[in-house]
């Protein structure tokens, strides 16, 4: 083969790669766009004027950044894989369906009407979770929390927000008198 034959082969191969990239971009942007969902988690406390601080809870929120609407079906937690060839376990989180200040909060896997929920572009939704030390067993836990959508995709809370949440749950909690338990 001569140099010109190699040049034609390389040109045809680069044309094929460019065409495949163009078709993928058209497919992912215009024919079948996926909604982008940003998930954030944090610890919040209820506050009543005149009474003061109440119960604390984990607030898990999701915002749809478009380009289309999406249906969130479950709040989920992921246990990372233990072996390189095994997949990690994913489980459903129990959502708080009563006020956190209630003497005995009630929980439901499906959130008592909160989930599934359809989110339009720019819309946000939040669910409450129990402030449980079992969610992140220790500060080194690598569990993640997020939402599952109706297409089977998972949308996770950012690693930075998860790390802050994990550290806040692992820190010693103060009781009503402002002292840390012994």
Labels describing this entry:
alpha+beta; Immunoglobulin-like; 2 domains; 10 strands
Number of helices: 2
Order of helices and strands: HEEEEEEEEEEH
Distance between the termini: 82 Å
CATH topology of the largest domain: Immunoglobulin-like
Question: Given this structure, which CATH class of the largest domain is correct?
Answer: Mainly Beta
Beta-strand fraction estimate: 25-35%
**Total number of beta strands:** 10
How many individual domains? 2
Structure description:
The chain has helices at residues 3-31, 159-170, and strands at residues 37-48, 52-64, 70-79, 89-92, 95-96, 107-108, 117-119, 124-129, 144-149, 154-156. It has 182 residues and is α+β, with helices and mostly antiparallel strands. It has two domains: 1-32; 37-170, Immunoglobulin-like (Sandwich), CATH 2.60.40. The termini are far apart.
Brief synopsis:
It is built from two helices and ten strands; from the N terminus they run H-E-E-E-E-E-E-E-E-E-E-H. With 182 residues, the protein is of the alpha+beta class. The protein is elongated and about 85 Å long.
Q: Which SSEs are present, and which pair or pack?
A:
Layout: H1 3-31, E1 37-48, E2 52-64, E3 70-79, E4 89-92, E5 95-96, E6 107-108, E7 117-119, E8 124-129, E9 144-149, E10 154-156, H2 159-170
Antiparallel strand pairs: 1-2, 2-8, 3-4, 3-7, 3-9, 5-6, 9-10
